[in-house]
Amino acid sequence: MAKTKRRTSQTVTILDVASRAGVSPMTASRVMNNNPRVGEAMRDRVLAAAAELNYRPNLAGRSLRSSNAARIGLLYSNPSAAYLNQLMIGVLEEGSLSGAQILVEKCSGIRSQRAAMQRLLDTGVDGVILPPPLCDSRQTKRELDLANITVVAVATGAPVADVSSVRIDDYQGASAMTQHLLDLGHTAIALIKGDPKHTPAVLRAQGFIDTMARAGLTVPAEHIVPGLFTYRSGLAAASTLLKLKNRPTAILSSNDDMAAAVVAVAHGMGLRVPGDLSVTGFDDTPVATTIWPTLTTIHQPVTAMGRTAVRLMLEEIRRKRSGKPKAGNHQVMKYSLVKRESSATPPRD
Questions:
Q1: What does the alpha-carbon distance between residue 225 and residue 122 come to, in Å, rounded to a whole number?
Q2: H helical segments located in 80-137
Q3: What angle (nearest 5°) sits at the alpha carbon of residue 302, between those of residues 296 and 307?
Q4: pLDDT category, 3, cuts 50, 70, 90?
């Protein structure tokens, strides 16, 4: 009977080592990268498991770390394909110009997220760009920090002092859009909120509520409905709002995907946009100009934010390689209100 061959380093991954040692992949990675924050007992356990499995670290990844070339990961879990496409264009363009290598990983739940992070770590990334909603995940940032990986957050509403970030002022953007609808003569304005796990969604909602309050208007509870930044959640929210007895004359959606869903539901109910209902979005993604009527929205320079994120990352990598502390550079980019065909004066009684 033939003996079972011992697994070779080509077939053994850090996930196998973690499983054998009974630790998380992140812990195993920290041990293999000589992170000083790991205790001796844990280190011995992981090294023993690695020896048993004949594991060898990814030398290609390590050589990239030691060279001048920067390897940047982008980890995303975002339901808006339009937003991601715009961000990716900026990241890839700037990466090409700077000579940095960009690696992209998608994730969903916690287990998927950790596996995706580990794949990036195994390739020897110097840093990871986190677009929303992961930009607001304390756990994600903490695990990457423990692995000694630089992070840049994109579109976070709650920037951390030593983590570089790029964003717009979401509160003021939502306030400007609300004021636009008020200036048109609307008083019955409803809001479809975004994913509560994403801090800009909270800021956009607060900008709306505060601006209505400054105008002396109280927003009925039923005029504020939840959403998840997805088209599907926009359909559900719009159906709820447009069936109300005190139906709003305008709906402010926290992103363009949900606004597009509102337009679709309105058309299905025989309502004219903007004759019977004004609809506005946020972000100015391509969907804003591909539906009819075209969307009034807040333009967020997503592609430029992607380019800026890469530049911020490269600066942090240079500082790290020269032994300097993190800069924690926070850039707030300009937004603009783009008036199109989906908003107008309210219908006459």
A1: 42
A2: 81-98, 110-122
A3: 155
A4: very low
Candidates 49, 72, 201, 215; CA nearest to 132 is 201
Share of the chain above pLDDT 90, in %: 60
- pTM listed for this prediction: 0.78
- Mean pLDDT confidence for 308-312: 96
Residue type, 106: K
Instruction: Give 277 or 146, the one with higher predicted confidence.
Output: 277
Query: Are 271 and 243 a contacting pair, CB within 8 Å?
Result: no
Distance CA(215)–CA(52), nearest Å, equals: 70
Top-confidence range, 29-33, 55-59, 142-146, 334-338:
334-338
Pairing of strands 127-130, 71-76: parallel
Tell me the one-letter amino acid at 19: S
Indicate whether 336 pLDDT > 90: yes
Helix ranges restricted to H, the chain? 14-21, 25-32, 40-53, 59-66, 81-98, 110-122, 138-146, 170-184, 199-214, 231-242, 256-268, 287-290, 302-321
**Domains, the chain, ranges and CATH?**
1-47 (1.10.260.40), 70-168+302-334 (3.40.50.2300), 170-300 (3.40.50.2300)
Closest CA to 150 of 91, 69, 60, 70: 70
pLDDT at 36: 65
- The answer to whether residue 249 scores a pLDDT higher than 60 is yes
Contact 191, 166 (CB under 8 A): no
Q: Phi and psi for 223 in degrees, rounded to 5?
A: -90, 5
Pairing of strands 278-280, 71-76: unpaired
Rounded to the nearest 5 degrees, what angle is found at the Cα of 72, between the Cα atoms of 20 and 156?
100
| Rounded Cα distance, 236 and 267, in Å | 15
Amino acid identity, position 314: L
Is residue 201 within 8 A of residue 254, CB to CB? The reply is yes
Q: In what order do the strands lie in the sheet with 224-225?
A: 224-225, 189-192, 250-253, 278-280
Give the separation between CA 101 and CA 88, rounded to whole angstroms: 13
